[in-house]
Amino acid sequence: VAERRGTLARLAGMEELSLAIRRVTAANTLHAFVIKADRQVRYRVIDEVLERLRQAGAENVSLLSEAEPPR
């Protein structure tokens, strides 16, 4: 799922994600990309998204995390 100007868009897979990233970075390489994932997302998926962002020339990438509630 990707957020596009305040709305959510469902992407079919990594190739569609790459195309969406390239469309955005073609207009503005400094566009802010924020990756938010919980512990259910495997690291290799996040790594692949980061690689796709790098390949597309994205220059403003952040990872968002939330603290776990106290036990």
For the secondary structure, the number of strands is 4
Quickly count the helices.
Answer: 2
Give the N-to-C terminal Cα separation: 30 Å
Compute the average pLDDT.
84
The fraction of residues in strands falls at 15-25%
Order of strands in the sheet with most strands: 1-2
Biggest β-sheet strands, sense, barrel:
2 strands, antiparallel
H/E element order: EEHEHE
What radius of gyration results from the CA coordinates? 13 Å
Q: Tell me the helix content.
A: 25-40%
Low-confidence stretches: none
Q: What is the overall silhouette? A: globular
- Secondary structure class reads alpha+beta
In short:
By secondary structure, this protein is an alpha+beta fold.
Write the layout of secondary structure elements.
Blueprint: E1 2-4, E2 7-9, H1 14-27, E3 32-36, H2 43-55, E4 60-64
Parallel strand pairs: 3-4
Antiparallel strand pairs: 1-2
Helix pairs in contact: 1-2
